[in-house]
Backbone:
């Protein structure tokens, strides 16, 4: 709903939790779901006398990201202290990066239908995460869990190049796909390993200056990113058209009510008093190190997509779908390793399997259906051992219970009857039960063909080969 | 250099330390005295000089990404007065 | 028995090795003397039972020829070094109940070398002070004249060594806190190169300036103790990965010396006795064969203001972790989170600490960062350059440790006047250079010190020169 040509201007800040084994400055484990404070060492707790030591792997992950988005890479890794008080920030400061982010300006390309757009990335820097404060466990207290305190984050800041909620979602998906393909994060928004804040403002096309922006927080899914931004753009336009001003503030997205609301301001414009971290000596990054990373990058989604289109003759759309994330792409290639046709593999994965995944709100890694299952289903169809409908049934069974394809085909009686004689026998039965319709079909009511095929399928519980039924029916009609 | 009441308010807020009325006068005096001494730095033109954060920069310590699983939560939490079920407790925060 | 406590470290090691006396004897002698001189208030904690047990173990090790380098030698640690399962208070109410779950590297190294810890020495609160008058545990008295200050912040360590309560004590130096008390108490104190000794477990005041060192009876003793304390530590990112020379050998080696004298500085010394004693000391060394050269340290007078921006700024961040939530003093009047922070911190910190936090916060705050903090870092660069230039011509630099001898407790209330105690010691901290103070005469019948500053990693040289001086003079002898 465009009102009077207001142009939205959106920038996203994405916090990606890096897939390291330990935290950024301590050797504490970071597995999700541990008992509170069982992964908080003396360093993470900020006890007197503790000191930070930088995780090598975190640098490596950040460099991979920088190379993947063709960004400038800093020569030195320099940290700074960001000072503020909050119970989930044990030292009273966060070790982050200010003027010298490890990754500088880069860009990513997003697709919108046929068109593509380049979105600038201003910077990406390393910082430690805070812990968690839980406010609804106790009536008079807040509960602090510092398991997450100190985990490695890569904060990726986009230029305000996004012009719509849809573009924002595409950008977010792109970032997600890059970090998962690189293996530097599992990008799981529901577990908080990828978090997104949006800076939203609107302006008229002729305006030189940008409008006042608000920062949206608490957005933890792709769906909510879109909804929150749409709501906020709408809200701002309404306010401006009433003649009111937009207040620069942080707003929380309420997913239940689908609205954004002003955060009860903790402190107005906190003065973070950044200064260089004295406990960490700047780490030099050599050009050789950067080249090494660049030359050894895992295959990125765009490249993989091109390769699929060329090697397997997939259409652009199908290639896009099957490279939607690393797990799906691997799944696809593993199906192909069983020597079935790429076209069939794509159809089964992006059709029925995706449908099951979406319906159950899960992901391909959780699927009981594995590449071998899909390959065998396809092979059985190609060999005409089962029918299409039977195959779908089979897929659902495996989805729910797992199992071996051959055994299940037998157990469920899904073998396709392709034996002409057997089918003819049943067809004859159907014809004799439906003489009138048969006469009508003979005299030209072609659409009754489907009826007869359907009846045979019914009698055989879907295991007759529809092609054979059709062939035999045609023969009988021509007699 | 003069320290205003607003300055004191700001410092107190940022450092989370109370400055009460009785001591604010003597504190102002002390702070002004120190800042006057510090302002001597203005005598030097440092426009072409780089800031030096670390006196020595030739050490480059990095840590291998290997887990250390020796965290004894109970022992560490002996240090805290307010805790329950593994959590640290603070007065309720309203966001 | 009382003779044992008068022995130097070197002689104690010899005596234990050749079984002239036992560790039990010497430990008990010290414990008895500590009780006798309780009024000096040198100790915050005394580990009587453990000492006695450890002394027995030490004696066994000696008999079995399993003696480690400092086996059975009773020492004291400044109460800034964490010791596992023991209280470490840092002279503050904030940590009066803090029992550390881990040990500092300094403690571990000396403990591994066989030293026996008598207890933790008193100090200015959080190492902030130059007179040991800011401790929550009360003033330390100068053993030579109990009305006077022992200096600070390592007043307890310096007084303990002077009063024959231990042969050496660990201490820390951020702006002069080893050298100045050593000067006031007529003992030897050395601050090594920044990064030479691990800061792991050493409660932080100003991270880029803090260094651990030794207060002992003479340079030879200090060399031995420093040797076993030094070395690279993975847990401290600012720790130098450099070979530690054998200071014990170097202290007595045949070395040539070129001593730089900052002429302008010396000419501006106000106190005649201090200036004369300095000139006298230099002629003694010259007669012994050292070359004397005039050098220039053009920016040295700006060390004081730069230090009193950098140190408070770093301390304001380092002390933000003290909030009563995970450890330390927690206020009883806590009806909101804000109360918890403000009341715990206001109750827990003393006046000087608060002042420094205020100054530091101010210097880092919005609008002031460039004028104060950044400017101070630039001056730091200038001062380091001054030293680098000077060390092209000379191998050590000499100047007095302090502008005067000790003063009456309670006599200095102007903060700037107190800060000016460190006017000659601060430059070495800003540049990170090793520096030692040795007794070199008296002023107003109280000891004064000669300070020797060495180039990076050149502790051996200044120890050597100090030892030479002590062979030619008797100022360091307790009379």
Residues:
């Amino acid at each position: 709903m465009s009102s009077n040509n207001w142009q939205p201007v959106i920038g996203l800040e994405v916090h990606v939790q890096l897939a390291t084994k330990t935290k950024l400055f301590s050797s504490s484990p970071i597995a999700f779901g541990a008992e509170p404070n069982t992964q908080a060492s003396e360093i993470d707790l900020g006890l007197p006398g503790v000191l930070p030591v930088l995780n090598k792997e975190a640098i490596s992950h950040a460099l991979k990201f920088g190379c993947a988005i063709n960004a400038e890479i800093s020569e030195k890794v320099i940290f700074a202290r960001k000072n503020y008080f909050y119970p989930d920030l044990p030292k009273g400061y966060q070790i982050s990066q200010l003027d010298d982010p490890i990754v500088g300006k880069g860009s990513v390309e997003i697709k919108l239908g046929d068109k593509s757009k380049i979105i600038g990335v201003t910077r990406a820097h390393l910082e430690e995460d805070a812990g968690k404060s839980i406010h609804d466990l106790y009536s008079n207290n807040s509960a602090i869990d510092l398991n997450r305190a100190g985990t490695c984050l890569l904060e990726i800041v986009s230029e305000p190049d996004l012009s719509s909620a849809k573009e924002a979602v595409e950008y977010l998906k792109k970032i997600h796909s890059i970090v998962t393909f690189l293996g530097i994060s599992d990008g799981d928004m529901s577990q908080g390993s990828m978090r997104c804040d949006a800076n939203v403002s609107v302006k008229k096309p002729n305006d030189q200056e940008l409008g006042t922006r608000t920062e949206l927080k608490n957005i933890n899914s792709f769906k909510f990113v879109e909804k929150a931004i749409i709501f906020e753009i709408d809200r701002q336009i309404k306010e401006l058209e009433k003649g009111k001003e937009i207040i620069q503030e942080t707003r929380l997205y309420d997913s239940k009510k689908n609205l954004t609301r002003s955060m009860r301001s903790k402190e107005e414009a906190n003065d973070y008093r950044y200064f260089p971290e004295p406990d960490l000596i700047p780490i030099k990054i050599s050009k050789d190190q950067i080249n090494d990373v660049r030359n050894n990058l895992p295959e990125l989604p765009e490249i993989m997509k091109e390769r699929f289109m060329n090697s397997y003759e997939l259409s652009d759309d199908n290639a896009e779908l099957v490279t939607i994330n690393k797990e799906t792409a691997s799944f696809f290639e593993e199906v192909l390793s069983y020597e079935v046709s790429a076209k069939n593999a794509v159809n089964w994965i992006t059709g029925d399997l995706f449908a099951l995944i979406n319906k159950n709100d899960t992901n391909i890694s959780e699927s009981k259906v594995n590449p071998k299952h899909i390959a065998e289903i396809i092979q059985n169809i190609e060999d005409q051992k089962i029918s299409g409908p039977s195959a779908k049934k089979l897929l659902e069974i495996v989805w729910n219970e797992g199992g071996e394809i051959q055994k299940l085909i037998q157990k469920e009686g899904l073998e396709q009857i392709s034996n002409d004689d057997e089918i003819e026998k049943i067809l004859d039965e159907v014809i004799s039960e439906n003489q009138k319709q048969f006469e009508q079909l003979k005299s030209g009511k072609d659409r009754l063909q489907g009826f007869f095929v359907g009846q045979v399928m019914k009698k055989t519980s879907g295991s007759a080969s529809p092609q054979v039924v059709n062939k035999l029916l045609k023969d009988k009609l021509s007699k | 250099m003069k320290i205003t009441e607003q300055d004191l308010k700001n410092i107190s807020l940022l450092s989370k330390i109370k400055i009460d009325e009785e001591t604010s006068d003597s504190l102002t005096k002390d702070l002004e005295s120190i800042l006057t001494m510090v302002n001597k730095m203005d005598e030097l033109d440092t426009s072409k000089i780089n800031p030096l954060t670390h006196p020595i920069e030739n050490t480059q310590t990095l840590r291998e990404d290997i887990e250390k699983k020796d965290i004894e939560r109970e022992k560490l939490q002996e240090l805290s007065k307010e805790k329950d079920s593994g959590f640290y407790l603070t007065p309720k925060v309203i966001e | 028995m009382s003779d044992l406590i008068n022995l130097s470290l070197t002689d104690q090691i010899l005596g234990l090795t050749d079984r002239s006396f036992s560790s039990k004897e010497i430990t008990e002698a010290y414990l008895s003397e500590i009780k006798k001189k309780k009024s000096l208030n040198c100790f915050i904690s005394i580990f009587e039972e453990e000492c006695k047990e450890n002394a027995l173990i030490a004696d066994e090790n000696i008999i079995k020829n399993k003696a480690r380098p400092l086996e059975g030698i009773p020492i004291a640690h400044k109460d800034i070094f964490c010791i596992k399962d023991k209280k470490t208070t840092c002279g503050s109410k904030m940590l009066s109940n803090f029992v550390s779950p881990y040990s500092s590297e300094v403690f571990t190294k000396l403990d591994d070398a066989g030293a026996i810890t008598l207890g933790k020495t008193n100090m200015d609160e959080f190492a902030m002070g130059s007179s040991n008058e800011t401790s929550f545990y009360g003033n330390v008295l100068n053993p030579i004249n109990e009305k006077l200050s022992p200096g600070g912040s390592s007043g307890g360590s310096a007084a303990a060594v002077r009063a024959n309560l231990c042969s050496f004590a660990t201490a820390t130096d951020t702006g002069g806190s080893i050298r100045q008390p050593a000067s006031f108490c007529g003992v030897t104190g050395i601050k090594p190169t920044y990064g030479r000794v691990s800061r792991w477990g050493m409660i932080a005041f100003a991270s880029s300036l803090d260094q651990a060192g030794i207060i002992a009876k003479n340079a030879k003793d200090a060399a031995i103790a420093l040797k076993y304390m030094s070395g690279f530590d993975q847990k401290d990112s600012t720790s130098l990965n450099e070979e530690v020379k054998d200071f014990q050998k170097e202290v007595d080696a045949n070395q040539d010396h070129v001593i730089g004298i900052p002429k302008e500085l010396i000419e501006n010394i106000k106190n005649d006795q201090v200036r004369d004693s300095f000139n006298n000391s230099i002629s003694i060394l010259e007669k012994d064969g050292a070359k004397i050269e005039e050098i220039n340290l053009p920016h040295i007078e700006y060390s004081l203001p730069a230090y009193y921006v950098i140190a408070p700024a770093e301390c304001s961040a380092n002390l933000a972790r003290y909030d009563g939530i995970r450890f330390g003093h927690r206020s009883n009047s806590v009806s909101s989170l804000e109360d918890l922070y403000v009341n715990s911190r206001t109750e827990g910190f003393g006046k000087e600490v608060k002042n420094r936090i205020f100054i530091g916060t101010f210097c880092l705050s919005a609008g002031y960062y460039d004028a104060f903090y950044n400017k101070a870092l630039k001056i730091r660069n200038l001062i380091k350059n001054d030293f680098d230039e000077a060390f092209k011509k000379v191998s050590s630099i000499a100047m007095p440790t302090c502008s005067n001898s000790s003063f009456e407790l309670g006599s200095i209330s102007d903060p700037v006047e107190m800060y000016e105690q460190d006017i000659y010691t601060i430059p070495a901290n800003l540049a990170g250079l090793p520096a030692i103070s040795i007794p070199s005469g008296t002023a107003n019948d109280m000891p004064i010190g000669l300070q020797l500053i060495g180039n990076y990693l050149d502790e051996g040289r200044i120890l050597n020169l100090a030892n030479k001086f002590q062979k030619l003079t008797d100022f360091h002898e307790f009379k």
In short: The radius of gyration of chain A is 29 Å. The longest helix of chain A spans residues 222-241.
